[in-house]
Each structure stands twice: as C-alpha cells, then as structure tokens.
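Hey team,

Filing this mostly as a record. A colleague (T.K.) asked me to run one chain through the structure pipeline before their review meeting, and I want the input and output archived in the tracker in case anyone asks later how it was produced. No errors, nothing strange. Just documentation.

Input sequence:
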Amino acid sequence: MINSDYEPVIGLEIHAELQTQSKMFCGCSATYAASPEPNTFICPVCTAQPGALPVVNRQAVNQGMLVGLALNCTINPHNVFARKNYFYPDLPKGYQISQYDLPLATHGELEIVTGGKSRRVRVWRVHLEEDTAKLTHQGATVQVDFNRAGVPLLEIVSEPDMHSVEEVLKYGNQIRSILRYLGVNSGDMEKGVLRFEANISVRRYGSNELNTRTEIKNLNSFRTLGRASVYEIQRQIAVLQGGGHIEQETLGWDEIRGVTTSQRSKEHAHDYRYFPEPDLPPLEIDTVWVEQIRRKLPELPAVKRDRFIQVLGLAPADASVLISEKALADYFEATVAAAKSPTHTVANWIVGDLLHLLNDRGLSVENLNLPPSHLAELVDLATDKIITQSTAKELLPELVDTGQNPRALVDKRGLNKITDERVLAEIVDQVIARNPDPVASYLNGKETVFTWLMGQVARATRGKADPLVSSRLLSEALRGMKKPENSC
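Output structure:
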C-alpha cells in the first residue's frame, strides 16, 4: 500500500513505432520484425556511412499529425529536426535525429476516468524521431542488429498530471487504443513497438510543489509499468521519511528482483548538445495539409463509447469492453446490422460467450472464423425461440472452429426447439416416472429438486425442450401429485 500522506506526481513518455513502409530517413523497409536475419534491412543512411544524406518520410509525418490531432494538439506549422548527441552502441551515427525546440504537435489533452472520477491529462508534445538499433547481450558479447535503426518513432510526452498508478495505466491504455484505432501502431508490446518511460516524484498531500523526479526507462508492458511505478513511489516515500533526499536520475527496472536500479544521473537538454540537423531543411506544414489529415480521423474510442451508450442504449461496462479494440467494435456493429435481435442481446453474446471463448482459445476478433452475419443468425435463432439458449451456446464453439452457417447446422442436426406440449408432456411424465426418489423429495418440500428435474427434461430432449413450456408442464404435473392438505 502507498502511504496516504504522500501524493505521487507522474508524467508518462510513450514511444510508439509507426507502421510505415520505409524508415524515417531512408528507403529501407521498416518491417524489420519480418526479417529473421539481422542487418538485412539496412543502407548507408541508417548505418551512418560517410556522405549519406537523410530524407524525411512523408508517411511518418502524416501519421504523427494524425496522432497529434486525435490528442487535441496544435500542429505546428514550422518544424525543425535536431541532432540529439549521445554515444551508445545502438546509435550508429553517435546522435539521434529527433525534434526538440519545434516539435510536430503541442498542447493537447486526453480525458481519463478512474474510480468514477474524470481527470484531464495534458499532452505536452508529440514529436518524431528515429529508433535505435537492437542490442543482444550474450555473456560478455554484445551483438548489434541495425534492422530497427531508423524506424520512425513517435514520442508522446504528457505533463505530470497523474496522481496514481491507476491513472497512469488508464492513460497508457487509452493512448494504445487510440494508436490502434488510427492504424499507426499495432500495440503489440511483446514486440517492443510500444514502450513507456515514467517520470515520478512524490509530495505531501496538499502541496503544489514539483519535487525532484526520477525516470524509469524502457517499460515494455502494462504489468511492468504498474509494478515499477508502485515500487518507485514507495521507495521515494521511504527515502523522504528516513530524512534523505531524492536524486534526479535515470532508472531501470529489474523484473526478477522487482526493484528499480540506478543507470545514470538524469540528463538535461544541454547534455545532449541539441542543434538543428544541418542535412534536413525545416518542415513546413500548411493548413491545407493539416485539414487533409484531419479528414482521415476515424471515430475515436471515447466518442464511440458515448455513442454506444447514448444511441445504442448499451450499459457503460459493455460499451467500454466493446470499444477497447477497433476490430471488436467493428465486429459488434456489423453483427448488430445483420441481426434482428435487440442490440443489447447482441452485446451480451459478444461480451459474454464470444469473448470468453476467444480468450480461452487464445484467438482474437481479427482471426475469427465466424463472420458477423453468422453470429447474428445464431443470436436470432435463439431470440426467435427456434433453438434454445443452451443449444445456441453449445453450437458457438463449433461455429467458431468451422465457420459453418448456423441455420444449416441446426436443420442438419434437427436441433429446432421442441414446443409441442403433447411431446413435452410425455417427456415430463417419463422423467417423473424414472426418478421416484427425487420426485418424493420435491413433494416433501425440497423445492430445489425442481431445477434438477428440469435438467433431466433438457437431457432427455438434448437441450431442445422449450424451457418455459417444459417448466410449466413439469410444475403442473408435480402439483397434481401433491396430497391435498387436511381441512378442518
């Protein structure tokens, strides 16, 4: 538990690789993960050969602007790329081409809701840069793969507006969702395409002071972001309570030990010796270009959630689940369009049965073999009482596996619901005759046996008995078997 006398103050930097065809400043393929061989997607530019000159990737600029607009930022008309100088084996040039004084977008905001409370998190800047190479450590040997060097990277930097780990995780999740909705980042954190850096300080509750902060680098999962943030907050509180002071430094996260570790003293801007990149002219963005990109903005998650609640009448919890991934929201809307059943019924099927099945099987909506029209037909068959709910639920796994047409499968197997009262009355009589002891228990007052007897009716009909009709018939038959009470 975090000491309630202290308030965390947290800002988050998010590094997102952009899904462009080529790298940020050269024509090499940016799909480095597709190559099993290291150092194959490289050229003189991304390996910093003498005389090689960079050229800005327009697709990366377009995607960066799209993100900036989605985060309510101002797109700056005059952009300048800069050299960020530092020496590390994964940086072939000895500097990184990034943006400093004049970034692509500034002064945005994102609203988050945690614990029923809304908070506005300011987005300080969104800027473009190039990714580094990948280092692989094998004992005392370090190998360098330059396939990733130069891949377009978008850095999204928040103001220190978050005051709990829950808010940080919510903000990070919403940014990831927006990036996926825009189609600029896969959000696949296991592949390292989305990475977090948390800037953390603590202060006494009621204070507005911004105290010395630390930065935790290269957090590549939400679990790691959460664990590292909690630990660092608790560590700083313990230091202050012990009479110490916080050093401004860059930290790493040791996943095995569950602790933050010091890497180096915190750098300042002057440590990087920023200066304008002499090989790239300023990037000028006019209003026509901005409006062209603005027209490409899709309906974003927060807007879609509000529409699902206000227009489609969904419960807030269901709406939040359905908008969590664009593919899932699209699948839901396509199913609703194809179904005659009420919208909330379709939502219940997807949020409940379908998602549970996909999670159990490690599948996603993107690779689902069940088209929306088939799920709509299955839901309608149950809603129209052509088949029972239990039959529909039993068919769902097979339909997901095979992609068969639900109506054809129901007809082929004779699964239509039995509603004929004469047929059901005979089955009820048979169930009563075969189970004298449970029937006696029910007649002696153990009413919970009724549910068991209904199960026997369902079993006898292979789940095809209309539950309402069979329940009524069973109740009437048992009531007729009760002895009349003695009257005075």
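Quick notes for T.K.: The radius of gyration is 30 Å. The chain has 15 helices and 16 strands.
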